[in-house]
Amino acid sequence: MTGIASRGQLRMSFLRYALVTVPLILLLGSLSGWLSNSGYGNAWFASLEKPSFMPPGAAFGFAWTILYILMGIALAMILHARGARNRGLAIGLFAVQFLLNLAWSPTFFAAHRVGAAFWLILAMLTAAVATTIVFARIRPLAGGLMLPYLAWLCFAAMLNYEIGRLNPGAERLVPGATSTEISL
């Protein structure tokens, strides 16, 4: 044997990474949405006027499940690329964009901060583009797995913008749980 590890051993190493990253990202993403009471079950969100291109509620759960799985696989590919140039940068960028991702639902659904959520999603999109570029330089397939996420973020940013435009003062429609505002 001329290599340090066989193909089978390398495959198993990647699978071990994926068995951690995929469920972890899926769990954290789902937990962020659940704790924020995201979706149509949220009374504040249900009261907002929605743009005509707003998909049904079930589409969001389906889309985010797929996207989180793809992100987890892409991250596992990068974690598995030991010794790759810019691997640390790629992992750091992924962490930044993912933390921004986890912060979006609490900002939008729990805090009712439509404008802040829009700026947050733009920052998330910027970080996700940088992540995708660095991922693609290390493992082209990992970069490719991030492309549906980028497309969805663009769509989500349009939805966020339109909801803000259609609902000026949405932050005050229903005070948030942490609000000291009193409606008369």
Gist of the model:
With 184 residues, the chain is an all-alpha fold.
Describe the structure.
With 184 residues, the chain is mainly alpha-helical. It has one domain: Ferritin. The protein contains 6 helices and no strands. The mean pLDDT is 91.
Secondary structure layout:
Blueprint (H helix, E strand, L loop, with lengths): L6 H29 L7 H5 L9 H24 L6 H24 L3 H25 L1 H27 L18
Main traits of this protein?
73% helix, 0% strand, single chain, mainly alpha, elongated, Ferritin
What is the count of β-strands? 0
- Roughly how many Å is the radius of gyration? 19 Å
Q: What would you call the quaternary organization?
A: single chain
| Number of structural domains | 1
**CATH C-level category:** Mainly Alpha
Gap from first CA to last CA: 78 Å
Range of strand content: under 5%
